[in-house]
Task: inverse folding
């Protein structure tokens, strides 16, 4: 399906190594060809944690972010990507819907 999407003109793929513990990156890597003009964007800041209380665990320390970037590039078999997003969770931060009164 990924190869078919690229053949139909999809030129942007957003992924993360922690999606299904790397499976999604494997599918994308297999679909891409060197001549494809596809922008691959990934994200770091979390790691798979299948045995933990949640399927993902935050990985926000500088060394974890660097390792995440390097692991993503290796899994996708890319030398670089023009953009790497940060999955960030700020504890205690809430989003107000409709303003301070909630309306």
Result:
């Amino acid at each position: 399906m990924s190869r078919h999407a690229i053949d139909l003109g999809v030129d942007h793929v957003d992924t993360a190594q922690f999606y299904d513990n790397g499976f999604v990156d494997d599918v994308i890597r297999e679909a891409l060809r060197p001549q494809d003009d596809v922008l691959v964007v990934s994200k770091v800041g979390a790691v798979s944690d299948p045995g933990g209380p949640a399927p993902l665990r935050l990985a926000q320390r500088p060394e974890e972010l660097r390792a995440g970037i390097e692991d993503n590039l290796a899994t996708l078999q890319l030398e670089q990507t023009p953009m790497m997003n940060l999955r960030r969770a700020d504890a205690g931060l809430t989003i107000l819907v409709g303003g301070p009164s909630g309306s």
